[in-house]
Amino acid sequence: MRISIIGVGYVGLVSGACFAETGNDVVCMDIDSRKVEGLQKGVIPIYEPHLEEIVKNNLNEGRLAFTDKMEEAVDHGLIIFVAVNTPQDEDGSADLRYVLSVASAIGKCIEKYRIIVVKSTVPVGTCEKVRDTIAAEIRKRGLNIPFDIASNPEFLKEGVAVDDCMKPERVIVGSENSRVEEILKELYSPFSRTGAPFISMDLRSSEMTKYTANAMLATRISFMNQIANVCERVGADVMKVMRGIGSDSRIGPKFLFPGVGFGGSCFPKDVRALIKTSSDFDYDFSILQEVMAANDFQRVHFLDSIKKFYGNDVKGKRFAIWGLAFKPNTDDMREAPAVYIVNGLVNAGASCFAYDPKATENAAMIFNGNEQVKFGKNQYEVLENADALILLTEWLSFREPDFDRMRSMMRSAVIFDGRNQYNTATLARMGFRYICIGRPQTGIEAT
């Protein structure tokens, strides 16, 4: 099929590359000419495992192309995916300016029948706004050009987005036209050969499904973080509790790991957007308000536990930081807990020497000009003369480090683990004070 993708961000680039990988003829369009020029040369603006190789492969094979001209994209694809960003507005709602701008641009240059598929995460009713915007622009031109609108929310997880796209757990399509459903089902057939369900529904239910999924997962995370906080007080081990409830088929093990809270471009923004949508329809979504409050509290609680260890005085302390991205296998720093933790320590008079396998460049822009935040070339370099190590992102390279080497480099053998990566008994035996989340502590105060 001939496919066009509008918006070459995270979702658009991964989706376009994967559609091309299955044999489709794909054109990806973005208004950022510099980004387009780089992509035409195979320069990938984001880090995502396996993405660079399939982009370059399909560029070389001629199945994938990039342009900054809307007319070319609209002329090329029978199916046009809208995959632009929907950032959070000041009131918590999803800002639809980019989605509606794309709709207006499509309406100004569409010449023949097209299927417009909204893949951006959007509030309920947005597809109808897109349809009305396109129709209004066509009427201004004095034309009568048919088109259809569909909703196709994405469920890509950063770090495994290519696998999620090529092997989806389900494909959701909202449409008012059965023929459109059949065309999209054919497009997705190479991805669903292993039995992933293709689920058809109306436009509004499709839009709501995406927000509901992210809100549910965010709720699980905040719930387990609060369980971890209770475990700390009663002397229970949250990791054992997690295994106990995760074995229940009604619950399952995913998204139960406690930590310093969720971040990234999806969960915080989408939960707030659903709260705002509910409010617009006179419904008080109190559970989700508590989910966000619990998430905000978790990073505060973790920072407070570090300060408490030092008698609430970290002035002059040197902290090594392992992990800056909001999750492993990405360079995404959006709403990353590390930003709050590092700023909190620096504002209290400490210094931080940080390392992340992929997010250092983005982090350097966030902390630009802060002389108390430095970055290392590897995970061991930042440990030199550190008063403590703070682990904030669970990269694989941090899972089985050389603890003997670490202890010899650090000024004090102290680890604050925001992801519960290590065995408490092992670290105690090796002479570390180990402070984690919701588990029995091997050290509660500085010596």
Walkthrough of the structure:
By secondary structure, the protein is of the alpha/beta class. Helices cover 43% and strands 14% of the residues. An 8-stranded mixed sheet has the order 3-2-1-4-5-6-7-8, sandwiched between helices. A 6-stranded parallel sheet has the order 11-10-9-12-13-14. α8 links the parallel β7 (171-175) and β8. α5 runs parallel beside α6, α9 (203-234) crosses α11 (267-280) and α11 packs antiparallel against α12.
Class per helix and strand makeup: alpha/beta
Question: How much beta, percentage-wise?
Answer: 5-15%
Look at the structure and give the mean pLDDT. 95
Total helices: the number is: 16
Shape by Cα distribution = elongated
Secondary structure tally: strands? 14
Based on CA atoms alone, the radius of gyration comes out at: 24 Å
Largest sheet: 8 strands, mixed
Low-confidence stretches: none
| Widest sheet: strand ordering | 3-2-1-4-5-6-7-8
Give the CA-CA distance, first to last residue.
67 Å
Q: Helical percent range?
A: 40-55%
Listing every helix as H and every strand as E from the N terminus to the C terminus, the arrangement reads EHEHHEHEHEHEHEHEHHHHEHEHEEHEHE
